[in-house]
Amino acid sequence: MARVLVISSKGKHFSAGMSLDAFGTEISMDDQCQEGRAAIFDFLTAMQSTFTKLETLRIPVVVAIQGGCVGGALDLITACCIRFASTESFFCIQEINIGMVADIGTLQRLPKIVPIGVVKELAYTGRRLTSSQAKACGLVNEVLETPSATLDAAMRCAQEIADKAPIAIWGTKQAIHYARDHSVEDSLQHMCLLQGTIWSNRNIQEAILARTEKRQGEFPSLSPLSMFS
Asked: 22, 85, 165, 186: most buried by Cβ count inside 10 Å?
């Protein structure tokens, strides 16, 4: 059973964004009637759900970024938990440069990661954010010299996470995301309910014993899910 998801890509860029040729071919927006506008709503909802699935995945998502992270790629990484980038990486809300509003999640998630002034500058101007700027404002956790070093860092982080009790990681992700969107008081109450649900004396004893014996802990995996579509 997977305990962490690592996303990476090959080539010069993590993703240079969607090809402009897609407009009018794969993507066709009818703005001439109410029915067409309703279809735009449904189309965007379906696209947004793809990245929301990453955000709500029951395991942490770590991403290794090199080169350009443009347009939809920025939507993707803002839905991830931990981000590593190589020195030459850059980030861009490209949509404003082609006369549209970013609509798949960047404008909703990025303000919860970096200062609102940074979001507005990127969103209004379409400027590039360098890797050093991304590190300074908190968009990425670490900047590495090369793409290979970036992937190595992401994999090391993933291994550290995978060594922990899966139910504790699951609960931690739930608590962090809830606290991000709720008041401290509500989040504390939610934490009590969550901890009461997932508390495991066995896992705590095993984690302490494994640290004492300098070995990897042995923890049960999360139960499989039955998915319905």
From this structure: 85
pLDDT for residue 20: 63
* SS percent in the chain: helix, strand, coil, step 5: 55, 10, 35
Q: What is the mean pLDDT of each run of 10 residues along the chain (229 residues)?
A: 95 84 63 84 92 96 98 96 98 94 96 98 98 98 98 98 97 98 98 97 97 96 83
CA dist 139 and 131 (Å) reads 9
Domains, in order of start, for the chain: 5-161 (3.90.226.10), 164-212 (1.10.12.10)
Contact 141, 83 (CB under 8 A): yes
**Cβ(71)–Cβ(97) below 8 Å:** no
